[in-house]
Write a structure and sequence with these properties.
The chain is α/β, with parallel strands linked by helices. The protein has 18 helices and nine strands. Helix 6 (120-129) packs across helix 7 (136-148). The radius of gyration is 20 Å and the shape is globular.
Length: 383
């Protein structure tokens, strides 16, 4: 038995994801666990299909067990996203391999960059460059170039390679002795909105096709429900929630610094939609993805304190027979939960995070037409 972990959003699950799972099997994995984001994803928006639909699809198409990456880590920076997901993979106590999609499939190069960005020399160089650069990402890339060469720094220009570096760094930081398996990304780029017709398309392009009711079926391995989440339905809810907040309350959200709360406080008073609000806040220093995550955190009640630690439980979203074998072989260092009713035994941060998740999922239900009922977390049956 050789168990591999993959980290994913599956927003939605497509042919590229199936290809990654196939390549992970070819690399020797007999069992695969996916750590998957819930109903809100890292780009700061609602997933196109709900988490139970996406988890079941993953199990139908090659994964064996899907566990949820809780909201504060799923909707966070690349570093926190990776830290939360890798901690859950390691907490199972039976994962041997970490497999990830990347624009670069050279594990040695990815490890070199991971080692560099978590060195003392890097911190000194980054501090030197930050005042000269328009963004943290730009300063980070320049610091890596200065320390180990432009060819390595170039990896940080690619979204999946950035995450691969963070996965490796988190695994090494936590002391997990994982074998790393990099699967080269196929088809169009991460944010590409084009669908080339080669059988692979980015999740962004597929979501666009779904939203426009266009043919996307050649890019996905299953038939999805005709109903999908329309993120724009939350426009008024976002403006309502933020207009009720003071600048001090806004300052409690994750990733707020340098008086950004004041900029948000002023922008929400003159904006008429979510997109307009983002446009009124973003700058070269504060890119769109960061602002979107902050705004959605404010709507959903996520505070900076929530992601300062690590996920406090392992929640199962979908499972097959091999997934049960993973659970039988596991030696978990965290509680493993299959039913929402089991959370009633939890208090402290575990109970707080789960309550946050349930509230977020009830807000997510507003994205559907007709609007879904509350309580999806309590109605879902995993086994």
């Amino acid at each position: 038995m050789k168990t591999a972990a993959v980290v994913a959003e599956y927003n939605p699950f497509h042919c590229g994801h199936r290809y990654q799972l196939e390549k992970t099997r070819e690399a020797g994995a007999t069992h695969i666990v996916a750590v998957m984001s819930g109903n809100f994803v890292q780009r700061g928006e609602a997933a196109i299909f709900d988490k139970f639909t996406r988890a079941k699809t993953a199990v139908d198409c090659g994964a064996d067990l899907v566990v949820e990456l809780p909201l504060p880590w799923a909707m966070s920076t690349a570093q926190n996203f990776a830290r939360g997901a890798i901690s859950l993979a390691g907490a199972l106590g039976c994962v041997d391999m970490l497999s990830f999609g990347s624009e670069c499939d050279d594990v040695t190069a990815l490890e070199r960059v991971a080692q560099t960005v978590y060195s003392a020399e890097f911190e000194l160089k980054l501090a030197e460059l930050l005042p000269q650069c328009v963004s943290y990402a730009n300063a980070r890339e320049q610091a890596v170039a200065a320390l180990c060469g432009a060819q390595f720094a170039g990896l940080l220009a690619n979204p999946n390679s950035i995450l691969a570096v963070e996965y490796i760094a988190a695994a090494k930081k936590f002391g997990f002795d994982f074998e790393f398996n990099a699967v080269r990304r196929m088809g169009d780029g991460y944010n590409s909105l084009s669908a080339s017709g080669n059988g692979f398309a980015s999740a962004s392009a597929i979501r666009r096709l779904i939203a426009s009711r266009s043919d996307y079926f050649s890019y996905v391995p299953v038939t999805y429900p005709s109903e999908f989440a329309d993120f724009s339905k939350l426009d008024t809810a976002v403006l309502y929630a933020l207009r009720k907040m003071s600048a001090d309350e806004i300052a409690l959200a994750p990733d707020i610094s340098e008086g950004l709360e004041n900029r948000i406080f002023e922008a929400v008073r003159i904006s008429g939609s979510f997109d307009e609000l983002i446009e009124n806040i973003k700058t070269k220093r504060y890119p769109t993805a960061r602002i979107r995550r902050i705004i959605m955190s404010l709507l959903l009640g996520v505070k900076a304190k929530h992601s300062q630690g690590l996920p406090p439980y392992i929640r199962i979203l979908a499972c097959n027979e091999k997934g049960r074998e993973i659970l039988s072989a596991a030696n978990p260092s965290l509680p493993v939960v299959a039913r929402a009713s089991q959370f009633r035994q939890f208090d402290g941060i575990a109970g707080e995070i789960f309550t946050l998740e349930c509230t977020a999922d009830d807000i997510y239900a507003l994205c559907y037409s007709p609007v879904r009922e509350c309580g999806a977390d309590y109605k879902a049956k995993v086994f």
